[in-house]
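Protocol check, entry for the methods section draft. Step 1: assemble the input record (protein sequence plus ligand SMILES). Step 2: submit for complex structure prediction. Step 3: store the structure tokens unaltered in the notebook. Ligand used here: flavin mononucleotide. Step 1 record:
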Amino acid sequence: MTVLFISGSPSAGSRTGRLVDHLAGRLDRPATVLRLRDLPAEPLLHGDVTHPELARAARLVRAAEVIVVATPIYKAAYTGLLKSFLDVLPQGAFTGKSVVPIATGGTVAHLLAVDYALRPVLSVLGARHVTRGLFVLDTQIEPLAEELLPRIDALLEEVPLAEVA
Ligand SMILES: Cc1cc2nc3c(=O)[nH]c(=O)nc-3n(C[C@H](O)[C@H](O)[C@H](O)COP(=O)(O)O)c2cc1C
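Step 3, stored output:
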């Protein structure tokens, strides 16, 4: 089972990125982490899918059977960086894949953004199965709040990722 984590934060020292690293570390198998902030901005914004780094990122998506899409909530939705990336993927890029939506945010007021903003775009890309979402407050990430562990493990077990570590 090939697992790809996509981190949609543009920030250096991203808390979403740290959460992703933690989740990847809980799996009993290697997983690839794609940090969208590392992609070249101009080809991304211009939709230049021939750029080698964008082509490589698209190959990682194609090869993955499970994709964990993690984004900070910015202005009550997922980030523009994540949208830019999803926009350059081909139609149906998530077809046949299980997708796990995850968001971090500063206030629980926006926890439903996982469902009203992120989930529809994952479905439109053809995801076979979009799991329950996970919303994590930024204050719960560093250090990772103990109470999150059962929620994280329950979520990971919802997709065919085999045993968590
Ligand atoms: C530009 C910007 C907009 C934000 N807007 C929201 C928001 O609307 N709702 C919310 O809950 N948190 C908001 N936040 C807080 C971030 O979602 C939160 O701190 C997140 O964990 C940051 O993740 P990162 O460090 O990976 O970028 C915002 C942060 C920034 C920088």
